[in-house]
Every structure is written in structure tokens, then in C-alpha cells.
Amino acid sequence: MAVVAGRVGAVGALGLLAAVAAAGAVAAPRASPAGRSAAPAGVTAPVGFAAPMRPAAPTAPTAPTAPTGFVAVAEVDASIGQEMRYATPHNFTGAVVDGYDEPVCLLARPAAEALRRAQREVLRRGYSLLVYDCYRPQRAVDRFVRWAGDGADQRTKAEFYPGVAKDRLVPEGYIAEKSGHSRGSTVDVTLAELGRGPLGMGTPFDFFDPLAHTDSPRVTGPAREHRDLLRRVLGRQGFVNLPQEWWHFTYAPEAFPDASFDFPVSVASVHR
Question: What pTM does this model have?
Fold first, then answer.
């Protein structure tokens, strides 16, 4: 409640009211909602005169922020390529995914610094790392599960899951209700040739099929060499590959092994 603590000048409050009344200009006091008389129009309320109560303006909820220890990868190594798929419609859901406010890679600092070390090695070979996803909020994971349960939406089947029925994506482990990405030490990454683009890996990113298994015997030739190179380079820096996805690597030890964060993907989330 705002209380007006105004002060009448050289003349006291009673003297001023008397002077106004003598001039015949005093109006009847207005009743305030609290039952107290409000000050006459044009007269500053004396000390102790309560102004009518006004409801407080609503405030927007504050978005959660990352805990200390998260960084934007571009600020650790700007040379690492970023193609953050879930911040664009080019992903298996066919739409921008909940929680991806900006197309930026966020990671726990130890994982980001390990990624920088791996980048230094591949740059010497004429390649660059290219990340597709990094930290992933839990709300995005929930969105994936809802999408998998919508059998009517088959828009992306030809590109991402041509050989698997959509209602099998969760039971067969292609989509999970909890993700290591939400802990901040997991990255989806590939290799790109400098000045050319991503190397062939035998399947696209997020291809739901046994062909995407890192050691699939059906993947041979250059694609096999590229997968093995990516795994070796990242492995030397502490990243462990998920065998079911050639692109999926988790840095160990994880900075937040028991967490599941839900702050949005944006630079502001790590700049407090």
C-alpha cells in the first residue's frame, strides 16, 4: 500500500483547510475504499492521510537460469561449428522444440573445454567439429515423448525413421523420457571438412535405425573411417560414445551427474 507522506508548506494542514473553507471552495471529503476520508481535490494529503489502495502490478515469472559452471561453447572456442537442429524446424519433430530460445550450444565448462581440445586436433587434420545439440532442457525431452505418441504426425518419417514404426521409437530406445543432455555434459557432434561441409557418416544425424549404431557392420569405407576418427579424437579428451548413435558423446566425469535441468537454451541462461 502506498502512503502519501506529503507536507503542507508554511501553513499547517488545519490552517490551509480553514483558509480554503473560508473561500467557500472546500468540497465534501471523498470516502476511500478503506473507509477513511481522502484528501480534497488539489490539496496534498498531510502526514498520516492514507491514499486509496491499488493492486500491485502483476510480474512476469523469471525464467530459470543455468547453475554456475555452464558456459556458451562459442565463448570457449568460436571455431567449433554449430548447427543447433532443435532450434530450427529441421529435426524429427518438424518444428522448433520447446526450450530452444536461441540456436546456441551450452555445456558444463569441463565438457566445453574438452571439446575445445578435440577441435584443436581435428583442425590440424583439415576438419572441424560441428555440433547438432548440446545441453537439452527437460521440457524438450518431454516434447519428444509427446511427439512420439502422436501417430497422426508422420511428416518426417522418410528422413528420420523410414524403417521403424513411430509407436516403437520409445519402446526401442530411440527416444527416452530422460536424457543425459539435460545434465550438460553430452553433445551430438560430427566432423566437417573445412570449406566443404559435414563428412559422410553413413546416416544423417538423428536417424532412428540400427544403421546409426556406431559399429554397424553395414557401414564401411569412408563413412566407417570418419566414425572411427570422430570416436578416437573425442575419446582422447574424455568423451564416451553411445553405441546406438554415432553422433552422441558424453564427457566423463560429468559435472552434474545427478541433475536434470530445465532452463532455456539461450546465452542469457549462462550470463547471470
Answer: 0.78
Instruction: Provide the β-strand partners of residue 129.
Output: 191
Which grid cell is 203?
Answer: 546416416
Q: Is 245 a catalytic residue?
A: yes
Tell me: the pLDDT tens digits for 131-166? Answer: 999 999 999 999 999 999 999 999 999 999 999 999
First to last CA, the chain: 31
Q: What's 137's DSSP letter?
A: -
Among 172, 177, 193, 245, the active-site one is 245
Among residues 86, 49, 82, which one has the least CA distance to residue 198?
82
Nearest to 14 by CA among 22, 5, 2: 22
Q: Give me the phi and psi of 92, to 5 degrees please.
A: -65, -20
Please write the tens of the pLDDT for every residue from 26-63: 444 444 444 444 444 444 444 443 444 555 555 545 66
What is the spatial distance between Cα 153 and Cα 187, in angstroms, rounded to a whole number? Answer: 27
Q: Are 262 and 101 in contact, with CB atoms under 8 Å apart?
A: no
SS3 at position 19 = helix
d(CA 201, CA 226): 6
In angstroms, the CA 112 to CA 179 distance is 18
Buried b vs exposed e over 208-226: b needs ≥16 C-beta within 10 Å? beeebbbebeebeeebbeb
